[in-house]
Write a structure and sequence with these properties.
alpha+beta; OB fold (Dihydrolipoamide Acetyltransferase, E2P); 14 helices; binds 4-amino-1,4-dioxobutan-2-aminium adenosine-5'-monophosphate; binds magnesium ion
């Protein structure tokens, strides 16, 4: 029986066996207290044994980090903080953990230190809570789409295209990297590669997702994506998970409605289904904030912040309107933005966060960006300058979603691929969908880890994925 079920059913008098990892052991004059956790919930179960019940040899092996099975009777707890406890009958030790060497001592460790022991950090309260929330969010995402008539489309990880056209791909090749076979003109002869052509890890499942939408009407992808962008920030990973719905007959406004409804649903799901973990994470944040200056402390607690997003409309405005707001801001006038503001710039995180956290104080959907700073596949507006793009910006995060209505006109799309230098032979299949039964359609990509960051209140993206991959770091 998992601890979650034991605590829920709380069947007093029942004999049960609890299996898990020892968090703490405390020996007093005539009793031993052992706290165990099995990761099913944030709470531990306390096992209590009178002296002599556990033999000396076994008791020595029961240390923080060891793995045990404890059999006993569930009784009402005498102590505070828990309703039930286990009156021990026997203890079996599966695996010991040398107390001199075990890195996770029962004390507060820094997040930086825990990143260095990513193989053990899921055993801490903080990371087990994050991993459970992550799981629930993934489940909620699948549930939302399933309940709304979307089909889960599995798009390839290895591809020959660059969906975002940004050249940030990790190459996949079976050729000798030092001495690859060469053509007569000195270029690499990819015909000898496993796939007979240049391939890379996908940066997005969107292009294939669009093919799915042109047949099944409503699809979504949910898989790993890879970016070789050298952004060493607290918001970027080289390997992250992305959710990409794509819908036939959707225009930009429908796309915005979907993004708002969908994000609210998954946040609300976490509020309902991960409440104990969120309370734990909220308290953790409160502890951290005690050390900060008053003006740096957040006005809302974690749970209040999540409720606020679920209960309020997102602000919608165009990129051009946002630029006006930024230009009129005191911060701009005092020259305090690191990157100067003018129409045409790619908004930086400082601009996005100003709009969301200082100006509107709610999530914002920005639309109709200049075409030169957006991907080739976005539908062009009539003004010839902007495209039907939309980015959703969240407090504390900045961009959490990027999406658009797609260009459905064959000639216009072909023209745009040429302008940005994408070779037709890498995406001829994508272009063909505009030749055969083209339809208006739209979609977006949600960065899964950014959503996990938002919901858990963590501040570094390395702390919301089990094994983060970032520049110069792929140890585990
Ligand atoms: O804005 P992006 O690059 O859009 C796309 O990839 C589109 N193909 C999506 C679509 O329309 N189907 O990425 C989408 C989201 C971003 O808003 C961000 O949340 C996340 O993916 N993201 C990252 N998350 C972590 N690390 C990175 N390096 C990320 N790059 C993007
Ligand atoms: Mg983007």
């Amino acid at each position: 029986m998992q601890i979650k079920e034991i605590l829920q059913t709380a069947e007093i008098g029942k004999e049960i066996t609890v299996k898990g990892w020892v968090r703490t052991k405390r020996v007093s004059s005539n009793v031993v207290f052992i706290n165990i956790n099995d990761g099913s919930v944030i709470h531990n179960i306390q096992a209590v044994a009178e002296t002599g019940i556990i033999d000396e040899e076994t008791l020595k092996l029961v240390t923080t980090g060891s793995c045990v099975a404890i059999t006993g009777t569930l009784i009402e707890s005498q102590g505070q903080g828990q309703k039930v406890e286990l009156q021990v009958k026997s203890v079996f030790v599966y695996g010991t953990a040398d107390p001199e060497k075990y890195p996770l001592q029962p004390k507060k460790h820094s997040l930086e230190f825990l990143r260095e022991i990513a193989h053990l950090r899921p055993r801490t309260n903080t990371f087990s809570a994050i991993l459970r929330v992550r799981h629930s969010l993934a489940f909620a995402i699948n549930k939302y789409f399933n309940d709304n008539g979307f089909f889960y489309l599995h798009t390839p990880i290895i591809t020959g295209s660059d969906a975002e056209g940004a050249g940030e791909m990790f190459r996949v090749s079976t050729l000798d990297p030092i001495k690859p076979p060469l053509n007569e003109d000195g270029s690499v002869n990819y015909k000898e590669d496993f796939f007979g052509k240049e391939t890379n890890l996908t940066v997005s499942g969107q292009l294939e997702g669009e093919l799915g939408a042109m047949a099944l009407s409503k699809i979504y992808t949910f898989g790993p994506t890879f970016r070789a962008e050298n952004s060493n920030t607290t918001r970027h990973l080289a390997e992250f998970w992305m959710i990409e719905p794509e819908v036939a007959f959707f225009e930009l406004e429908d796309n915005m409605n979907l993004a708002e409804d969908f994000t609210k649903y998954v946040i609300n799901y976490a509020l309902t289904n991960c409440y104990d973990d969120l309370v734990f994470l909220e308290n953790r944040l409160k502890e951290e904030e005690k050390n900060k200056k008053k003006e740096e402390q957040s006005e809302l607690s974690l749970i209040e912040k999540l409720r606020f997003v679920v209960d309020n409309d997102y602000v919608r405005l165009t990129y051009t309107e946002a630029i006006k707001i930024l230009l009129n801001s005191k911060r701009h006038k005092e020259g305090k933005f690191q990157y100067p503001v003018e129409w045409g710039i790619d908004l930086q995180s400082e601009h996005e966060r100003y709009l969301v956290e200082k100006h509107f104080k709610k999530p914002v959907i920005l639309t109709n960006y200049p075409k030169d700073i957006k991907a080739f596949y976005m539908k062009q507006d009539e003004d010839g300058k902007t495209v039907r793009a939309m980015d959703v910006l969240f407090p504390g995060i900045g961009e959490i979603i990027g999406g658009s209505q797609r260009e459905d006109d064959y000639e216009k799309l072909l023209q745009r691929t040429k302008e940005v230098g994408i070779h037709e032979d890498t995406i001829w299949w994508y272009l063909e969908t505009r030749k055969y039964g083209s339809a208006p359609h739209s979609g977006f990509g949600l960065g899964f880890e950014r959503m996990v960051l938002f919901v858990t209140g963590m501040t570094n993206i390395r702390d919301v994925i089990p094994f983060p991959r970032t520049p110069k770091s792929a140890e585990f």
